[in-house]
UniProtKB/TrEMBL annotation:
Belongs to the ligand-gated ion channel (TC 1.A.9) family. The keyword Membrane applies. Residues 252-352 form the Neurotransmitter-gated ion-channel transmembrane domain. This is Glutamate-gated chloride channel. Residues 34-243 form the Neurotransmitter-gated ion-channel ligand-binding domain. PROSITE patterns: NEUROTR_ION_CHANNEL. InterPro entries: GABAA/Glycine_rcpt (IPR006028), GluCl_TM (IPR044721), Neur_chan_lig-bd (IPR006202), Neur_chan_lig-bd_sf (IPR036734), Neur_channel (IPR006201), Neuro-gated_channel_TM_sf (IPR036719), Neuro_actylchol_rec (IPR038050), Neurotrans-gated_channel_TM (IPR006029).
Length: 448
């Protein structure tokens, strides 16, 4: 029994010693991290003002900085201000030989910092930025990772409002290219070079939703710039946006078509319904003008003609033409009434003269008249005139004109103008639609 108690006592003591050693090892590991940070970033050991050496530690080569980013969201694309807002996670990675440390046989993968001023940082800036801010909720969204081989990874979440010059000639059937440009502010290409990270330098969040646009694709490129102070490294991302046409079809094109068609209703109203036709024409004209001004209010004043300007201008012309058509119909109606009154007066005068002649015959029934001879001499001019009339009546009848025959069904000029307008206005508007859509849709395909 004594030997058994002795065995269990030794086993218990050994387990306590092993636990104590494990805890000491863990504490020593964290202390090792602190010692490494103090060793590489301690006072007098690291100067953040001096840029790292080039490739393989060469002092006369530029520092290469690899860049990649993750597009989290694109909140808006403003046509009037020609800008867009984006939120992204921006990353830079470079090698600083001065930051190498012992990884303790792979147990220390990297060191994490939250203070960017502790190490050297590339002087990158966004050249087409208008506004920007960092995110500090709950803590600053930034970190720096230092790897055992001296590689440094800098990651930060930022929101930017960037300029995006737009060409609105095909608006709203257009595509826009908005760029994100990054360049070095002070270091020339002799000291600092930005490179896109190999593989997948730009990542976009899945199910990216934009209210009026669709992100079709994006392209990465280089855009080094030369000034009188030297050449500076530059990177850019071109985002290709396609405008969603369904919104404009429902909000602009269909209402404009309806207004034009409503203005044609006046062609079917009676020419005497002056208040109805005038009210209809003026109302549609003012509504169309309001629609046009509302469209232009959301767009910048540009020196060229946009596709939407052509559409609204032609629709406004058709509505105005319908109002002018009624003015022409009203003038023709009054002219027809004046001619009818003149004919009536002429008929009344002829009837009055006939009545006077008949009264004269009745009062002087016994009077004698010289009878005209029944046979005319060959040289008689009256006989020649009668013969010519007979020859005219004996000529072959001309082929009737179908248009004149159809228009002859409408005795007044005002009615004819209305009937012609009922056919002409829809046909011309349909022809305009054919030319408009074939032209701008074909140009859109060319831009692709």
């Amino acid at each position: 029994m004594g030997s058994g108690h002795y065995f269990w006592a030794i086993l218990y003591f050994a387990s306590l010693c092993s636990a104590s050693l494990a805890n000491n090892a863990k504490i020593n590991f964290r202390e090792k991290e602190k010692k490494v940070l103090d060793q590489i970033l301690g006072a007098g050991k690291y100067d953040a003002r001096i840029r790292p050496s080039g490739i393989n530690g060469t002092a006369n080569k530029p520092t290469n900085v690899e860049v990649n980013m993750f597009l989290r969201s694109i909140s808006k694309i403003d046509d009037y201000k020609m800008e867009y807002s984006v939120q992204l996670t921006f990353r830079e990675q470079w090698t600083d030989e001065r930051l190498k440390f012992d990884d303790i046989q792979g147990r220390l993968k990297y060191l994490t910092l939250t203070e960017a001023n502790r190490v050297w940082m590339p002087d990158l800036f966004f050249s087409n930025e208008k506004e920007g801010h960092f995110h500090n909720i709950i803590m600053p969204n930034v970190y720096i990772r230092i790897f055992p081989n001296g590689s440094v990874l800098y990651s930060i979440r930022i929101s930017l409002t960037l300029a995006c010059p737009m060409n609105l000639k095909l608006y709203p059937l257009d595509r826009q290219i908005c760029s994100l440009r990054m360049a070095s502010y002070g270091w020339t290409t002799n000291d600092l070079v930005f490179l896109w990270k190999e593989g997948d330098p730009v990542q976009v969040v899945k199910n990216l939703h934009l209210p009026r646009f669709t992100l079709e694709k994006f392209l990465t490129d280089y855009c080094n710039s030369k000034t009188n102070t030297g050449e500076y490294s530059c990177l850019k991302v071109d985002l290709l946006f396609k405008r969603e046409f369904s919104y404009y079809l429902i909000q602009i094109y269909i209402p404009c078509c309806m207004l034009v068609i409503v203005s044609w209703v006046s062609f079917w109203l009676d020419q005497g319904a002056v208040p109805a036709r005038v009210s209809l024409g003026v109302t549609t004209l003012l509504t169309m003008a309001t629609q046009t001004s509302g469209i232009n209010a959301s767009l910048p004043p540009v020196s060229y003609t946009k596709a939407i300007d052509v559409w609204t201008g032609v629709c406004l012309t058709f509505v105005f033409g319908a109002l002018l058509e009624f003015a022409l119909v009203n003038y023709a109606s009054r002219s027809d009434m004046h001619k009818e009154n003149m004919k009536k007066k002429r008929r009344d005068l002829e009837q009055a003269s006939l009545d006077a002649a008949s009264d004269l015959l009745d009062t002087d029934s016994n009077a004698t008249f010289a009878m005209k001879p029944l046979v005319r001499h060959p040289g008689d001019p009256l006989a020649l005139e009668k013969r010519l009339q007979c020859e005219v009546h004996m000529q072959a009848p001309k082929r009737p004109n179908c248009c004149k025959t159809w228009l002859s069904k409408f005795p007044t000029r005002s009615k004819r103008i209305d009937v012609i307008s009922r056919i002409t206005f829809p046909l011309v508007f349909a022809l305009f639609n054919l030319v408009y859509w074939s032209t701008y849709l074909f140009r859109e395909e060319e831009d692709e």
